[in-house]
Amino acid sequence: MLSPENKKRLLLKLATMKYKRVSFAGLAILSLLLFSLTPSIEHGSLLAEVNAEQLTATQPVQATATKEATKVADALTGATLTGAPRTTAGDYPQIGFSSRSIVWFFAQMHLFLAAFVLAVPIFVFFIEYLGVKTAESRYDDMAKEFMRISMTAYAITALFGGALAFALFLLYPHLMAYLMKVFGAQTLVYALLFFAESAILYIYYYSWDGLKYGNRKWVHLSLGLLLNVVGTTLLVMANAWATFTMAPSGVDAGGAVTGGIWEIIRGPLWNPVNLHRFIANIAFGGAIVGAYAAFKFLSARTLEQKAHYDWMGYTSNFIAVLAFLPLPFAGYWLMAEIYAYSQQMGITAMGGILAWLFIIQAVLIGTILLASNFYLWSGMSRCDGSKRYQWMVKYIAGVLVLGFLIWVTPHTLILSSGEMAQLGGSHHHILGPLGIMPAKNIAVNLMLIATFLSFQLFRRSDKIITVSWAKTGNLLLISIYVIAVANIIFLGVYFGYFTNTVYKVGSSVAQVCSTLVVIFAGVTIDSMMFKGAKTLPTVWGRVSDRAQYALFALPVAFTWLMALMGYVRSSIRTHWHVYAVMKDNSPDNFIPSIGYAGNMITLVTIAFLLITLFIFWIASLSSKQQVKPVESAGYRQQSIEVMGKK
Amino acid sequence: MIKPKSALFHFVVVFTGVLLAFYALDQLVMFAQGLPLNWDLSPAQ
Prior knowledge:
The structure holds two protein chains of two kinds.
Chain A: H1 4-40, H2 52-55, H3 66-77, H4 99-134, H5 137-171, H6 173-183, H7 186-206, H8 214-246, H9 261-265, H10 270-298, H11 303-324, H12 327-341, H13 343-350, H14 355-379, H15 393-407, H16 417-423, H17 437-460, E1 463-464, H18 470-498, H19 501-529, E2 534-535, H20 545-571, E3 576-578, E4 582-583, H21 594-621, H22 631-645
Antiparallel strand pairs in A: 1-2, 3-4
Helix pairs in contact in A: 1-8, 4-5, 4-8, 4-10, 4-21, 5-6, 5-21, 7-8, 8-10, 10-11, 10-12, 10-20, 12-13, 14-15, 14-17, 14-20, 15-17, 17-18, 17-19, 18-19, 20-21
Chain B: H1 7-32
């Protein structure tokens, strides 16, 4: 029998557990419901009542049969379906400056900031949860500091979002009227979610100290979860607008709405863009807060501050690298879906003038990988145990540099006749084969494996593994690395150069799988081997200043890269507002030249980085406190100054 | 002759196991895409 005291204690414990589960799981279910409800809200028009399955095909642009469906819909609803407007040059108001450039600037700035503010709460949620699990307050402090940076950015994001909306409605009224007609009430759902996002964000941040311990902490975590669900829903809803303009669905060939809102949202490119942006946002957010940590590290006055910001920088780099590793594969999926939707669109992106941008992309990704690896290598100096692995760094650097050089090798060159004669053709006889995708696929996969190896060595540097099967575990890891690398090279060379195109493309998937096996096996085997491992002391703050500049390089490269690839994504619509549905008849209905785009991309990158510095400054203001002046001395000083001025 | 308990034997066993796993991975991934391979990994179509 339980004593009354024990009974009371047990009941209290049960109630606590129940509360934790209810608050956390309840919010999770609520969040999922919100997610599932949003797309199911039917389109506001009468068409919603018509059975969409009878009316439309899943790819309406390609389905000519939808004209029949349109007639049926007219008959059933009594409504006359109107397609996309056919505009003339006179339909676009001009304000004396390129309309496209204005919209470009605001859209890109809004996207940068939105990516940042949506990404930060995602990893903040996990860091806060880690703080609860480990009962270490440093996680909680860091999570809150990350949120503080994001809070300032949030207001600026909304300002740029508003400016973008005004610019679009002013400069492209017919396009916006059409998009409003297509998306209907969904735009209001977006607005409502934006209100919800703002409210939850403020409650989440300002209740941080009020909901810090015990059950209240679980309520706070639940708020974090809800914030992320609403934020991610906002992201995927806005993505639907962008992907509709690239690969419209739920409308017929003339642009008339024939399907429900879910059909319009769920276009062929929606999910690839969702995945790509979701992962990229996390990597981008990690890089930005990493720069903040570097900035604070370099300006730190005490060893304690240095240690804190060094650890913060390490965590940020960890987030950025971890999210970055699968990003090329998500990008690959997006491009594959673009090709599957429209070969012409795919070729415009990767086979025409825009193909050159993928070389610049390679330079930027190479910069990101080199900088993040350099940071990891520098960070190994924090622990004396890292000396065991330092001999490997030069080989990893060799792989990265070689991969980088292969990746930036162009296939075709713009040559004069003299240069062509000197070269013996349009392709270099040795370097030419390195310009095509099989070589680049090998390079990028090996660079990712090398980066993961740096990360793994870094994690191992402060540990002495004690499990009895340590030798077998290491043998297994070495075998996985060696065979995966050999497999990637074999698949790239054999299928890439000696078989047909279908097998060449298919083998790239097997290459990706090999890389993923290395990453997942590496993390799993290491986690098992670290059980009961001896931990060597790590001195946080014992890292070179040079390493901090690597953390600055990351957001610069990420920002430039996002702007660059945004230009490619948007340009492949060529002279269409909505691909194959609504023609762009404005004076800017052509793909901007690379030089012009380069200037725009650089301008938005610089503008964003300046705003980032402003955000850092604002974030650090709240932690500053003026020292109370000694009254008599202060007044005397002021009096002297005033008299001096007179 | 490699002794069953030697480090080299250990390594050969682990290495062969991983090699077979990657061989199976290639066959599986290509087959799943409708691109079957022969036993020597050459295209079967």
